[in-house]
Amino acid sequence: MQTTNPKKVFVTRALPDEWLAPLRQVALVDVFTTAERPIDRSTLLQSVAGVDGIVSMLTDRMDDEVFEAAGTNLRVVANMAVGYDNIDLAAAAAREIVVTNTPDVLTEATADLAFGLILTTARRITEAERYLRSRQWKTWSPMLLTGVDVYGKTLGIVGLGRIGMAVARRAAGFGMHILYHNRQRNEDGESALGCHYRDLDDLLREADFVVVLVPASQGAKPMFSFREFSLMKRTAVFINVARGSLVNEEALVAALKTRRIYAAGLDVYGVEPVQPDHPLLELDNVVLLPHIGSASMDTRRRMAELAILNCRSVIEGLPPKTPVRF
């Protein structure tokens, strides 16, 4: 590691030491040592002073205030996430700060979770486990905890990108009829997996399961609100593993309460963590997960390795592997 004017990097969340070793070879690395809660704003602003690089998480708001606090040495913000809506790209561009993310490495893990939510929600698996654990199960009954079938049903994927394609591959194994909606047609999905393009309204009308996999845009209005839920089948299941800001949660709660749709499975929310008084917590036809789409040990390790590689490359004057284009 350099001994004269060494590079400095701040990591906003505790990571295993062995994952950070390649970064420590080229820089002085300071780490916010609490893994289970996000760094508070004042500590963040103090900690980034004078750094050359920041390894950030999707819970960290990276904006001009942070960049100003960091100073003129800051060259890179390496986000340990595929999304980057937590980063003010315009402010970064104005200061010539490189922004990177971690695409590809979390594709399969997130697709596993998305399909897991389809199965869990359709077959009421978590509800059934709670029923058993609370010792309510007294006898077999022909209508006990009946759900809806998955095999052979119609899946609507909103956002047929890398993760959407991975979900479609899983759906093909369940004999599902696959519809998708994108800003642009996905010819690979159509030819290789037999996916059929629909505009959004038609997809919502036809699909038995709707899976949301589009990226969120800063400041954009929710993609799914009262109108969109009114178009869906009453037997439809809504799955969101993308971003909570894509959904008007008031509209979703209303659709679930009135049984306008059958059920929902969520891994993301408008405000995270979910507050104790959130109305979603009172509903029995929604499966709620604490944003664990990429939470496998192998995937989180690969995400950290890629973020660290990106950060190291930039502070050494090399191009990053996965820059965000803006």
TrEMBL record:
SUPFAM superfamilies: Formate/glycerate dehydrogenase catalytic domain-like, NAD(P)-binding Rossmann-fold domains. Coiled coil: none annotated. Keywords: Oxidoreductase. CDD domains: GDH. Residues 115-293 form the D-isomer specific 2-hydroxyacid dehydrogenase NAD-binding domain. One of its GO terms (cellular component) is cytosol. GO terms for molecular function: glyoxylate reductase (NADPH) activity; hydroxypyruvate reductase [NAD(P)H] activity; NAD binding. InterPro entries: D-isomer_2-hydroxyacid_DH, D-isomer_2_OHA_DH_cat_dom, D-isomer_DH_CS, D-isomer_DH_CS1, D-isomer_DH_NAD-bd, NAD(P)-bd_dom_sf. Residues 9-324 form the D-isomer specific 2-hydroxyacid dehydrogenase catalytic domain. Belongs to the D-isomer specific 2-hydroxyacid dehydrogenase family. This is D-glycerate dehydrogenase. It comes from Alicyclobacillus mengziensis. The lineage of its organism: Bacteria, Bacillati, Bacillota, Bacilli, Bacillales.
